[in-house]
Amino acid sequence: MSKPSANRATHEVLNQPTPFSGINAYQSDPMLFEVASQMPKKVRDEFSAVGRFVTTPEAQDLARIANESTPQLRTFDPAGHRIDQVDFHPAYHALMRRSCGNGLHCSIWENRPEEKGIAQQARAIKFFMTAGLESGHLCPITMTNASLASIRANPAVYQIWAPKVLTHAYDSSHRPIASKSAVTIGMGMTEKQGGTDVRANTSRAEKAGEGVYRLTGHKWFMSAPMSDAFLMLAQMPEGLGCFLVPRYLEDGKPNGLQFQRLKDKLGNRSNASSEVEFANSYGYLLGDPGKGVRTILEMVTLTRLDCALASAGIMRASLAESVHFCRQRKVFGKALTEQPLMARVQADMALDVAAATALVMRLARAFDNSGNDEQEAAYARVMTPVIKYWICKMAPALIYEAMECMGGAGYVEERALARHYREAPVNAIWEGSGNVMALDLLRTLSADPRQLEAVITTIAADLGPFSKRTVDVLTAATALCQRDESAARLLAEQLAYSAASAELYRMGAGRIADAFAESRLAGSWRSTYGMLDMRFDAAQIVSLLYPEAT
Fold first, then answer.
1. pTM
2. How many C-beta atoms surround the C-beta of residue 511 within 10 A?
């Protein structure tokens, strides 16, 4: 009997697609390309640079390591002094430096000449692509960007803090603001007994000087605890107030924020979230006494846009990797994408991602224009909760389906899809769950029904043959909600489908718009992907929205 060869390979690696990297996330996305088509070349070059970076192997390694090497809380120093510091892996700091360098934390406030009238849209495109790489570090980026909307309610505080935000630097040192080159700002609203019901807040604020208060209480869920300051709500004699609470006092001493533990979360693992207790922590009042909810909602509105952007971005990244895999993976003699049922499933998903992308970029445009256009302001007010509701709620199911298309190859931590899937629920929960968004829509309707009427008019103008029947459906859903608030989700979903269809038509998406509108607005009941009518060429839809790299 002959002996087996000592160097004989036990197996060869066959039928395994190439890594999903080196694909420019901007230039390979027709939806982003169309949104940016009329923007200045300098801005589009920045998009291309971000798109090139986010799919490099180096960037993907940073994202993987930042999520594997999770933050660690150090409560005391070796001598027993309370320090309340969180240690992050250098990969996390590298991602923060990159995103701050790209201005994701401040660009809408900079008044760059090349971004005049498009600042929100320009940032949205960069944020969308970065989310497809790694979303956890974008939490402090989002809050820092949004915080200035509330901080400007106190001009004296704004004058001190805004310059340290409006820089493209990143400074992770543990020092007071005067000693830092740049700062990040977080937010703490959630308490054990209240959650969404912020008026159940039990934290207290006592006046210590002109505009300065001492805060005592707790926050059950405070994200990004290494931020340099936090916006918090606390009870004062006039009602809830909104305060900026620095982490360090001017003399360098801690400001009494004692972190009890870090949350062990399903996703968002590169970013720390904490429980914090505080006693006699100094804070600066923002806005009028007792008007804290109104003041902090300026910040919350901007964070809701980012929730939708991040969900749309990770859906795009997940499906792009799934399509890439299926184009190269052979099953029964053909590439997976050539198998009719797989083509139908991925085309159906591609329609939702295209609609989500179009819709969230439409919302960013409304934010850009709302200051000088009342119809755009109405769109921003009505559609912010609607778009956050629909896109964020859609993400987990779509990312799971993209994973299933890849089989076991998608269900491993070596690929980004597992991280995207864990990440997906947070955006639906953060800054208002689905029910909160639906009820916010009803509050807007109740406050001024004309705003919803203006939005429906705007939608109908671009819907073409679907205009009359869609307006009838939206009108009926509105009337139903006025009698029964438990129907609020019905109205939110119908508005989302209608507005997404309208924006796809406005962008000139042709058969893509037809396929989405006919399957969502006029289609039969559906609960999973792959239900697209055979009249629409599934392979063409995938090819148009996910062009093969050349």
1. 0.96
2. 13
